[in-house]
Amino acid sequence: MILLAIWAVLGLAVLGFMINAWDTDIFTRYAPRYLSGLWVTIQLVAVSVFLGAILSVPVALGRASRNRFIAALAYAYVYFFRGTPLLAQTFLVYYGLGSFRPELQAVGLWTFFREAWYCAVFAFTLNTAAYQAEILRGAIESVGKGQWEAASALGLSRFQTARKIIIPQALIVALRPYGNEIILMIKGSAIVAIITVYDLMGETRRAYARTFDFQTYIWAAIIYLGIVEILRNTIDWIERRITKHLKR
Q: Which of 40, 131, 163, 173 is the Cys-Cys partner for 139 at CB 3.0 to 4.6 Å?
């Protein structure tokens, strides 16, 4: 109750600030930059989540492998990227790999790692792949082993069983966690402004540096909130569509 009251007071304070400090000139002047930064944010998250989804499949299989060496490698990967801050991982890629410039130039990778945007995509992909691998592994394990046995009794191969029976059920279970992971990536993407990627937060920082008006950050927060709310409602809609048969 006390926490709710605190949030209510903060909300009223922000609303009062927006009313008293409203400056249409700032909004109209920097709206195109906000849109440009928002597009960079969407690209960064979309590419990272897509590549992370591809990478998460072998990692999830490795986590479930009976080979102890492979399972240990997959566990170490997941443990590291889930146990360390995304900011630290981004810094390790952007600043750390710069120490190996001669070696990277020798193998032709320096043109990739010298760009802040590519470094951000690389770090974000490795990070989200670890989380997605655990989501995928947990979703597959949530499907009862009896499904495998029943499919085998019907003469289906393991590939057919996975494609037609296990994965469709696992995706329903994984939808909500996948949605949460995308939302976390959107909010976490704000850190790339520190490595000179002009995403939504990067453009916000630049606008604030020129105006010293705190309103610029409030508008950024509103945009982030809008993105998250749209995504949350989209996930709810998809979940209702794919689980319609379960409610009959």
A: 173
